[in-house]
Design goal:
Strand order of the largest sheet: 6-5-8-9
Shape: rod-shaped
Radius of gyration: 33 Å
Strand content: over 45%
Distance between the termini: 71 Å
Structural class: mainly beta
Number of helices: 1
Amino acid sequence: TTTASTTSGTHNRTNVIIAKGSRGDLVSTATWEEILTPDVEVTKVADKTENVAEGETVTYTITVTNVGNVALENLTVSDSLTKDTWTIEALAIGASKSFTTKYVVTKADVAEGSVTNVATVTGGDLKDESATEEVDVKDEITVTAKSATVKYNGSEQSVSGLVNDSVTFGGATYTVEANVSAKGTDADTYETVLTGTPKVKDA
């Protein structure tokens, strides 16, 4: 028999068969080598991976599965981003354990454009295994349309353009092009309307 271990190597196994008969016992012995190979599969899945904004919380699920041919003990699971760690005291062949961890997207992540997170499993002679998940971060730029109060004269009046068409984001300056306007004939307050697709260009 083989006990739970994270140690790889060759182990001798012996099987003895005894056949009893009137002329005595017939004993057959067979010995063979069993190669123990500890191995795990690690997966990491985020509950959201695209267009994540600053301040949003991303929940990661880490799953460790014993895909080797020996039961495992005392494995350490660590998360590079959240710095969380967990211990798996025992993991039978074919069994899995899952963990969750949360991360709040920061301004620095937005400037970087993405969040990369790595989960790693270590223990005994087990070869370190890891899984990586990348989350794309949404870049948000806020601009303000121009507003004005004009004298009503019975004809259509309009206001167009942006108050701030030059913005700084992630340490760089960009120019925003957007066709925005508010217009009307009657004396009233009108909502600004965006026409077409805004464009952000290097300043």
